[in-house]
Amino acid sequence: MINYKNSFYILLCMSISMVLGASVLEHIAVWPHAFAAIPKSLSMFQGEYRFDPEPFWKSIHPTILILFIINLIICWKTERKKNVLIPLIGYVLIIIVTFLYFVPELNALISTNYEDVVKQDLVYRGNQWQMLSLIRLCFLIILIITLFMGFTKANNNSKSPS
Predict the structure, then answer these.
(1) Which of 3-12, 74-83, 110-119, 133-142 has the largest mean confidence?
(2) Nearest residue to 158 (alpha-carbon basis) of 81, 73, 84
């Protein structure tokens, strides 16, 4: 039988898995093409029908943070506590780094005016952004594995009442 503790844990795992899926998709299907010949290759981010992943990212991060907090409260006295606390701390660090470096740099790159030329300094910056973002993705995968390992732990109080 699924209880509310498992339900919230499953919602958290599903939500963070969506972030992983979206990140992998972007790294396979978007960034290699977008950064291949900047600014010429950035046309997918411009115009009326441009690719705009921002609404997804702006909605999923707060949702995950709320689910992390709910799960931390629910799991505080259980064996799952570390499997929630460690990924929560790591996820907050990822979000901080994302908003300090990744978002501003990405916005600077994709807001470059279209030209029918390739600017090697921008291609270099795009490649550097991709490499650092892949490192961030690997860190996220480790956090998700830690979170999923919580399914192997009891979700009831680890200390029995006296």
Answers:
(1) 133-142
(2) 81
Q: How many domains does the chain have?
A: 1
Query: What predicted TM-score, i.e. pTM, was given to this entire model?
Result: 0.89
Domain that holds residue 20: 4-152
Helices (H), the chain: 4-25, 31-34, 54-75, 81-97, 103-110, 120-148
CB 9 within 8 A of CB 75: yes
Q: Which two tokens stand for residue 84?
A: 């929630």
Report how far Cα 117 is from the mean position of its chain's Cα atoms. Answer: 32
- pLDDT of 47 strictly over 90: no
Does 159 fall in a domain?
no
Does the structure show a pLDDT above 70 at 1?
no
